[in-house]
Write a structure and sequence with these properties.
The complex is a heterodimer.
Chain A: E1 8-11, E2 14-17, E3 22-25, E4 27-31, E5 34-39, E6 49-52, E7 57-60, E8 62-67, H1 80-89, E9 92-97, H2 108-115, E10 124-130, H3 143-149, E11 153-155, H4 164-177, E12 181-183, E13 196-197, H5 200-205, E14 209-210, H6 213-228, E15 233-236, H7 242-253, E16 257-262, H8 264-268, H9 290-302, E17 307-308, H10 317-320, H11 337-348, H12 353-360, H13 362-367, E18 384-394, E19 413-423, E20 426-430
Parallel strand pairs in A: 1-6, 2-7, 8-9, 9-10, 10-11, 11-12, 12-15, 13-14, 15-16, 16-17
Antiparallel strand pairs in A: 1-4, 2-3, 4-5, 7-18, 18-19, 19-20
Helix pairs in contact in A: 2-3, 4-6, 6-7
Chain B: H1 17-29, E1 43-48, H2 54-65, E2 69-74, H3 86-95, E3 100-105, H4 110-115, E4 122-127, H5 133-147, E5 154-158, H6 165-176, E6 180-184, E7 201-204, H7 207-211, E8 216-219, H8 224-229, H9 234-241, H10 245-248, E9 256-258, H11 271-274, H12 281-299
Parallel strand pairs in B: 1-2, 1-3, 3-4, 5-6, 5-8, 6-7, 8-9
Helix pairs in contact in B: 1-5, 1-12, 2-12, 5-6, 5-12
Classes of the chains: A alpha/beta, B alpha/beta.
């Protein structure tokens, strides 16, 4: 990405930078793609350009640890260009891409390919590479080479690593290289043909369903391994159950390097929202029980959860407008994440905005060691998300810049809207 | 996505009580022997993605008894085999002139998907493990013919509730009329969550408890493969849950024994019970045609 040469002053806004422990009115001067100065209002003068941020929150650029941009191979669902445009519209300045593409991103070449300017990314792309070749669970990939090419983590997302030995080896190698192993925690031996969460709703609808234990068992095992293997780093993707949270808490208490993320749909919706077979409420992990959602809300507030991640999973209409059991898993999420967080977490559940910003910035930044991002300390990258926490708006999927529209939030009225997104000191999105 | 067309029958759960009542009253008045050309000129497509004997033939006879033309479309020997989607098949059938589609599908919710895209009534003839509304209606008709009313009745459903669309529809229908419903079987086939389906259900593992004082005994087919899958020994199931003459005696003296079929003699029930004086299994099949006549008449706006 090119660097903005002109200096720009972000003036009159309220800065929330949890990493720098700032929650106050501040002006920011951005120059050469970096934060040049942070100062009390009206102290900075002489910028080439000004942005009026009165009434707005100025935050470090949001980081999404979990997106599917579908390239290489499935560009009818999404591309790096369209997906990062959706990210920018949602306030994300950095996205970490999942490797379950066609082919699987399991080589340094594919990692470099994803980062190549020809992909047309408008925000930073940090690839997560496959942990095993072809994500087949057999042989580990070359973590060192992948890391050198720019991979920030490894995972077999969608195809969990169930074999104890392989997981142990992945964590050991990850520990040596200081690279996190991301686990999609699902014991697939327990979830064959399952299309939603097991409970009264799945029984009523006559759908085969996955128990919470299918997730919790794997998280239990992984946390145990992470405690045994010194310096290993385990990141639990899209955690969705109360029992899995318990395992993560145990690991954290034991000082293991265990982190986890939660999606906006899991803190907003529950299994009952599947209604009459709404395939836009079909994702993996599935929407869980009301009790699981409550546990997630508590964990978001108390610090157990490290990051909000969207699991943005675009699919074409022909993959979603089919029988529920045949429908593809996943929903889009980049454009609705902030609105859902402010509406559900801040307004409904009184979680402070500072904590919400932390979950989008310094929290995820730490999980994958994205240095000088997730904060606006002087010298950091000038990645900014400027949002209006009080603005009410209606999400219209048809107007999405993503190539896909598989969202359960079409037509939802949300509070909290992104006004501008900046990457490297340049605007990549401005609200109309 | 649209509301289902008027006259659609997707399940019992969301059907209003007075509509159920109306269908049952209409079914009582239908006589398969005396043809009534209520649906003359109408085209009814029987779209079956899954095997069926009773449901398919009785819908076909019902449509013909009302003067409609029918055609059968099955997955094999049609474009479904070539990968045509449910909705595209629906659009095609609509375009060739179907006025109503009676649909059986192995996926729960498939008729709902069809109904949300087509402007003609869709009748669910069984979707996965979800619902089988015409079966529940014909069973209700059978009970009414033997018991006059649902008042103060208890019904006991025994067997593989978990996999059964018949059980789900029956629970919705019977509890709506105040019938106390007891579900009985091993936890693998009758999970505790079954009781959450609708208020008025009770789950028990003991067949004596389930049968004592009951008015209606409804048995479900038990598939050997499913028992094996759940690691239940066939002999154990038979010992604990098979309906025998001795067990029928635990129910009320005038209790009726029902089964949606196909029955497996020697598994969920003995031949003596199947052919015994309290068995109304053949009656149920018999009531299938007038019930489905009522469903089709309602679907096509002639249900007055």
């Amino acid at each position: 990405m090119t660097v903005e040469r002109k200096s720009i002053l972000i003036k009159g806004g309220h800065l929330i930078d949890p990493a720098a422990k700032i929650n106050a009115p501040m002006d920011l001067l951005l120059r050469d793609g970096r934060v040049a100065e942070v100062a009390a209002p009206n102290k900075i003068h002489g910028a080439d350009e000004k942005f009026d941020a009165r009434g707005l929150i100025v935050a470090p650029g949001f980081i999404d640890l979990h997106v599917h941009l579908r390239e290489p191979g499935q560009n009818y669902k999404e591309t790096v260009a369209s997906g990062t445009a959706a990210a920018a519209a949602g306030g994300f300045t950095s996205v970490c891409t999942m490797p379950n593409t066609v082919p699987v991103v399991d080589t340094a070449e594919w990692v470099s390919w994803l980062k190549h300017p020809e992909r047309g990314a408008v925000v930073n792309v940090f690839p997560i590479a496959a942990a095993t070749k072809g994500s087949k669970g057999g042989t580990l990939t070359d973590f060192a080479a992948l890391q050198r090419a720019g991979a920030v983590a490894v995972t077999d997302d969608g195809k969990p690593i169930l074999d104890d030995d392989i997981m142990r080896m992945a964590l050991r190698l990850g520990a040596e290289l200081n690279i996190p192993v991301v686990q999609h925690a699902e014991d697939t031996r327990m979830t064959e043909n399952c299309s939603m969460h097991a409970g009264p709703t799945s029984f009523r609808l006559g759908l085969r369903a996955a128990s919470a234990a299918a997730e919790a068992n794997v998280v239990d095992r992984d946390v145990t391994l992470a405690q045994q293997i010194r310096e290993s780093r385990l990141h639990v993707a899209h955690l969705s159950t109360s029992d899995a949270l318990k395992a993560v808490r145990l690991g954290k208490r034991a000082k293991a390097r265990v982190t986890c993320e939660v999606t906006p749909h899991h803190f907003t919706l529950i299994d009952e929202n599947v209604g009459q077979y709404d395939t836009n409420c079909k994702m993996n992990p599935p929407l869980r029980s009301a009790a699981d959602r409550e546990a997630i809300l508590v964990a978001l507030a108390d610090g157990t959860v490290d990051a909000i991640a969207t699991d943005h999973a675009p699919h074409a209409a022909h993959e979603k407008v089919v029988e529920f059991e045949r429908a593809a898993f996943g929903i889009t999420g980049l454009e609705t994440a902030l609105g859902l967080a402010v509406t559900q977490l801040h307004r409904e559940h009184k979680i402070p905005l500072t904590r919400i910003v932390e979950l989008f910035t310094s929290g995820p930044g730490r999980v994958f060691d994205l240095h000088e991002r997730g904060t606006l300390l002087r010298g950091s990258f000038a990645d900014l998300t400027i949002f209006d926490p009080k603005k009410r708006w209606t999400y219209e999927a048809a107007k999405s810049v993503s190539l896909s529209q598989n969202t359960p939030f079409d037509g939802w009225q949300l509070t909290g809207k992104v006004i501008a997104t900046m990457v490297g000191g340049k605007f990549v999105y401005r609200a109309a | 996505m649209n509301m289902p067309a008027r006259g659609s029958l997707l399940g019992i759960e969301h059907l209003e009580t007075k509509e159920i009542q109306g269908l049952l009253n209409l079914a009582r008045r239908m006589n398969p022997q005396k043809s009534r050309p209520l649906l003359r000129g109408k085209r009814v497509v029987l779209l079956f993605y899954e095997a069926s004997t009773r449901t398919r033939t009785s819908f076909e006879f019902a449509a013909k008894a009302l003067g409609a033309t029918t055609t059968l479309v099955q997955s094999s020997g049609s474009s479904i085999e070539k990968g045509e989607s449910v909705i595209d098949t629906g659009y095609t059938l609509r375009a060739v002139g179907a006025d109503c589609i009676v649909m059986r599908h192995p996926s729960a919710g498939a008729p709902h998907l069809m109904a949300s895209h087509l402007d003609i009534p869709i009748v669910n003839a069984g979707d996965g493990m979800h619902e089988h509304p015409s079966q529940a209606l014909l069973d209700a008709l059978t009970i009414l013919k033997h018991k006059r009313s649902f008042k103060a009745l208890q019904a006991t459903i025994i067997g593989d509730i978990f996999h059964s669309r018949v059980a789900r529809s029956a629970c919705h229908l019977l509890t709506r009329f105040g019938v106390k419903v007891v579900l009985c079987g091993p936890p693998e086939l009758v999970p505790d969550v079954s009781a959450s389906l609708v208020p008025g259900l009770r789950v028990t593992r003991h067949i004596e408890d389930a049968l004592r004082g009951t008015d209606v005994v409804m048995l479900l087919r038990v598939q050997k493969e499913r028992l094996a899958g759940q690691k239940i020994r066939l002999q154990d199931y038979i010992a604990k849950y098979q309906m025998t003459v001795a067990r029928v005696k635990l129910a009320k003296r005038d209790a009726i024994v029902m089964h949606p079929g196909p029955i497996i003699r020697g598994l969920e029930l003995t031949a003596e019970v199947a052919d015994g004086p309290q068995s109304v299994i053949v009656d149920e099949v018999h009531n299938g045609v007038p019930t489905r006549m009522a469903i089709l008449a309602r679907a096509l706006g002639r249900g007055k």
